[in-house]
Automatic annotation (TrEMBL), chain A:
InterPro entries: Cytochrome_b-558 (IPR011138), SQR/QFR_C/D (IPR034804)
Protein name: Succinate dehydrogenase
Segments traversing the membrane: 15-39, 59-83, 109-129, 159-179, 199-225
Keyword ATP-binding found: no
UniProt KW Transmembrane helix keyword: yes
Gene3D superfamilies tied to this protein: Fumarate reductase/succinate dehydrogenase, transmembrane subunit (1.20.1300.10)
Keywords: Membrane, Transmembrane, Transmembrane helix
Organism encoding this protein: Chitinophaga cymbidii
From TrEMBL, chain B:
Domain spans labelled Fumarate reductase/succinate dehydrogenase flavoprotein-like C-terminal: 523-656
Source species taxonomy: Bacteria, Pseudomonadati, Bacteroidota, Chitinophagia, Chitinophagales
Gene name per UniProt: sdhA
Localisation: Cell membrane
Gene Ontology CC terms, in alphabetical order: plasma membrane
Enzyme Commission (EC) number: 1.3.5.1
InterPro entries: FAD-dep_OxRdtase_2_FAD-bd, FAD/NAD-bd_sf, Fum_R/Succ_DH_flav-like_C_sf, Fum_Rdtase/Succ_DH_flav-like_C, SdhA/FrdA/AprA, Succ_DH/Fum_Rdt_flav_su, Succ_DH/fumarate_Rdtase_cat_sf
Family per similarity comment: Belongs to the FAD-dependent oxidoreductase 2 family. FRD/SDH subfamily.
Originating organism: Chitinophaga cymbidii
NCBIfam families from the UniProt entry: PRK07573.1, sdhA_Bsu
Keywords (A to Z) from UniProt: Cell membrane, Electron transport, FAD, Flavoprotein, Membrane, Oxidoreductase, Transport
Active site feature: R329 (proton acceptor)
Catalyzed chemical reaction(s): a quinone + succinate = fumarate + a quinol
Protein name according to UniProt: succinate dehydrogenase
Topological category with respect to the lipid bilayer: Peripheral membrane protein
Automatic annotation (TrEMBL), chain C:
Cross-referenced InterPro entries: 2Fe-2S_ferredoxin-like_sf, 2Fe2S_fd_BS, 4Fe4S_Fe-S-bd, Beta-grasp_dom_sf, Helical_ferredxn, SDH/FRD_Iron-Sulfur, Succ_DH/fum_Rdtase_N
Record-level GO BP terms: aerobic respiration; respiratory electron transport chain
Cofactor(s) required, per the database record: [3Fe-4S] cluster; [2Fe-2S] cluster
Segment forming the signal sequence: none
Superkingdom classification of source: Bacteria
NCBIfam families membership: PRK07570.1
Pfam families in the cross-refs: Fer2_3, Fer4_8
Family: Belongs to the succinate dehydrogenase/fumarate reductase iron-sulfur protein family.
Name of the protein described by the UniProt record: Succinate dehydrogenase
Amino acid sequence: MKWSQFFNTSIGKKLLVGATGFFLCAFVIVHLAGNISLLKDDGGEAFNTYAAFMGHNGFIQFLAWGLKVIILLHAIIAIVLTVQNQRARPVKYAVKPGNKTSSWYSRQMAVMGSILFIFLVIHLSQFWWAMHYGDIGTVSYGAVTEVGNLYEVVYAGFAQLWIVVLYVLGMIALSFHLIHGFKSACQTFGLNHKKYNGILNFIGIYLFGILIPVGFAVIPVVIYLKQI
Amino acid sequence: MLNAKIPAGPLETKWSKYKSTVKLVNPANKRKLEVIVIGTGLAGASAAASLAELGYKVKAFCFQDSPRRAHSIAAQGGINAAKNYQNDGDSVFRLFYDTVKGGDYRSREGNVYRLAEVSASIIDQCVAQGVPFAREYGGLLSNRSFGGTQVQRTFYAAGQTGQQLLLGAYSALQRQVALGNVKMYNRHEMLDIVTVDGKARGIIARDLVSGKLERHFGHAVLLCSGGYGNVFFLSTNAMGSNVTAAWKAHKRGAYFGNPCFTQIHPTCIPVSGDHQSKLTLMSESLRNDGRIWVPKKKDDNRKATDIPEEERDYYLERRYPAFGNLVPRDVASRAAKERCDEGYGVGASKMAVYLDFAEAILRYGKIEAGKKGDDNAGKEEIIKLGKSVVAEKYGNLFDMYAKITGENPYETPMRIYPAVHYTMGGLWVDYELMTTVPGLYALGEANFSDHGANRLGASALMQGLADGYFVIPYTIGNYLADELQTKPIPLDHPAFVETEKAVQDQLDKLMSIKGQHSVDHFHKALGKIMWDKCGMARNEKGLTEAIGEIQALRAEFWQNVRIPGSQHEFNPELEKAGRVADFLELGELMCKDALQRKESCGGHFREESQTEEGEAKRNDDNFSFVAAWEYKGPGSSELHKEALTFDIVHPTQRSYK
Amino acid sequence: MKLTLKVWRQQNSQEKGRFETYQVSDVSKDMSFLEVFDVLNERLINEGKDPIAFDHDCREGICGMCSMYINGRAHGPWDETTTCQLHMRAYNDGDTIVVEPWRAAAFPVIKDLTVDRTAFDRIIQAGGYISVNTGNAVDANAIPIDKHDADAAFAAAACIGCGACVAACKNSSAMLFTSAKVSQLALLPQGHPERKQRALNMVAQMDKEGFGSCTNTGACEAECPKGISLTNIARLNREVLVAGLSSE
């Protein structure tokens, strides 16, 4: 079977969604690890230094563009699958089972994914666009000179309540998307084994479902609270 | 006189000699020969697949939505084979002997020996197909004893052996469909056989979705359409199981063998009311651990658990101390009927007996406690342990019982009653499985051949697959080798036109009656007559009455049946009507056959022929023959006899005392 | 008890369907769900109306023919139970029960509650077998099989092909059905020579039939009357992954 044929099968497409999903899972861990420095009371030195490094390292830049491609790929294939899945049942049931046979969030991956996508557009235009193409002030720390003061932009952004609320809502969507998404990707790659399901479930729920989204959500909330 | 064409020579070499001398068809010619297979159960699916593998062009038909639905799928217990994997003294001869004896000496030695001979190959074939039989920890196949045999020769897949074997045959069939060697016709029902110059040359089938009639040509036609237990309305058969294919063949010249030989299975869930549509079997294996009893007092309405031990009548253990609860199916069924008829029955209908696991639970519980070294375990602990052992062995059956009855069989005894299960009778066939119509074959339960007057447990699956995988691929060549010159007969041949017209006329007639009663109304009435007068016990008076009643019912059916809708659409009521019309004719023949057989043998119990203790009494001097009935017009049949000779196994009176 | 049945009626695959409401009385708790339909049909016939067409055959939960979507549940409210084994003890006097056919593009309605499931046959035709002609087999005990594998193969092979997995899945996916057969044959040494082609071909056919894809919600497993496990879907995914990466 040729690659093109293989990735055109339903399972082939799902493997792509799963693989890109795993990559994005890895990304959110790294992203959170970096962003935590926003909470450091150092006037933004750690965060701005980190941001400058990320913005100028060639390899990171390559990854960053790759990340955007992967997000798009993840979304586009998922949309294609969703459309196909919709077509597989042209006449809908009059009575639906509700949550008796499956969890609501496992059925709402497309909805959660769409919310996340909108969130991402806002998030990127707010910070990534500002950092690269916007007009932001610079700051110097010892050896590190003239780096963009993204820290300031972030603090200014999270001073507004509606943006903080938006971020918290985005992270709730991320939580449910990942609780099902991580486990689902494991299943798609055939990782379903009595001995390992416990640890996979633990990672899916506690790491991706709770720790990461809560970690992300804490940042805007704390920054907001610090400024009132 | 009927010629069964049993090959000459010693029993052990008949089949091998036949195989090495039978005519062959060369591969290039096989492609030109077309074979029609009716039914896709174990016999039909295995035959269609095997013949297609050989190169014949096969057309297979089933009335269900998929060939995988055939009722072979419901067989629970297992399949016998003379493998002797358990080193317990089994052999081809012993399986042969048990089958002839179990059939109460009314089957052919030659056929049964061949069945036992090919049994081992069936297991090999099924394992190679991926049938997941039960295995031991060492990775080898597991066996159990079944139906009171003294050796462990039954292979099984939990309680779903029939399902697994059928899915194996179905897979083989689907492979041939994919390869283009089999053309599959789902939701098609055969409604008549087309004969040309006395030979079977095709069928008329109805597409059940569109209602259209179709003509299909075949150099040979194989009927693998199962048994006719649904003549009783209530049976363990599927709702759609019917006699139509076999009966139409009978009306076109195929003799019907031993129609009265019906197997009544002793352990079924009893009827719960008038709404009852079918009966559910509880596997025979339950009798290995369950004890059957009724109260000693008539009309005892106490709860089973409230009746003390000394007021219980374990009637099988009392009457048959040697075999106890493990007597053969026919004996156990009659004994239950006798108790209920005498007024000792239990449950709301009083037509049931208890199958009690309380003692087995205690026994297993004690063993488990002993294994744990806990010799002082309390009764509650013992019962708990025992229940878990019973659950492991019979859990799925207990669950099924609980779903259907709403009672918990771990706490209160099961109620069971006999029900129609299998028909040993069927189209008469010779050694080659050919009916009296050249080119028309009958396989599996549809033929009469191997089980005599009573079938042993786990032998139906064996016979269906033996016929399909290992017998017909050889014997059909012997006929088709002479048919190479026969060109496919055009479908506008007068024989096709006339037969289709006859089918069309019957459909028109049925649709035009527009009477007062539904098809089920007539089916239930027929079932009641058959069960009351041609069921577990039969006598001359009852059978004579039954014949008159069936004739009257048949006349009323043809004047007063109501079929809704039209014949040019999907119309399940019309399908049922055609089947019941045939049952109404078959029922009469069954009664006639039961009437002429003035002896008791196997499943056929004539009250006039019993010992002083009420046991069945065979009459070998006068009835050691196969009754093969020839159709002679509506309500008229002529009896032909095929004498049975026993060179190896000498008939004795069965005794289980 | 008295019940209200709202049943999907559809003359054939072309015409549009609608719900019709029927009142049935004298329903006994001992009746099976299909026996209620028998009684209702008997009444409809006597009233000169068209009875409700529904698929059924063995009525002991093994043939896989019965297929009703009852109050939002494939085969009704009881776990691991086919429609024919569902008994009226599950309901109370006065209940309203909505009965629909399996709904999927790959299962077109034939009439009323009867649908066409031949797509399943075609998936099996694409590779759900071991290519062994009759007579080719070695002795049945020649190849010992790990009991756990044999048991797992049996558990997968217990699938009755009823289509409840498709009916229950929000995507009408046939992954549980397809994976059950692929699993059974992948677990047995006899199935190994063809395993790569089998997995790829059966999945290709499944897609071609118009079934949706799996989003791992688990509804199929929850509704399967034979308790076929999601581990089979994982195994199918592994089989396809390995086959897709390695086959030419």
